[in-house]
Specification:
Blueprint lengths: L6 E7 L3 H12 L9 E7 L6 H11 L5
Parallel strand pairs: 1-2
Helix pairs in contact: 1-2
Length: about 70
């Protein structure tokens, strides 16, 4: 991101890959979604399911710095 985001969404999660996938899709589908003004932070507490993979795949959809 080149400028500070207008909004930061922080998502703490543990073994909730299906919920995380739906949540990220929901954020993107918002009518007023503007990726330049939005930052999404996913905080994964060492999940053993697909949570880490889902979070990484979300980077393709939501432009964040890593």
């Amino acid at each position: 991101m080149s400028k500070k985001p207008l909004l930061t969404i922080a998502i703490p999660t543990y073994n909730r890959s299906s919920c995380l996938a739906r949540l990220l899709d929901s954020i993107i589908q918002q009518e007023n979604y503007c990726h330049d003004e939005l930052e999404v932070i996913v905080c994964d507490n060492a999940s053993t399911d697909e949570t880490a993979r889902i979070a990484k795949s979300g980077l393709d959809k939501i432009r964040n710095s890593t």
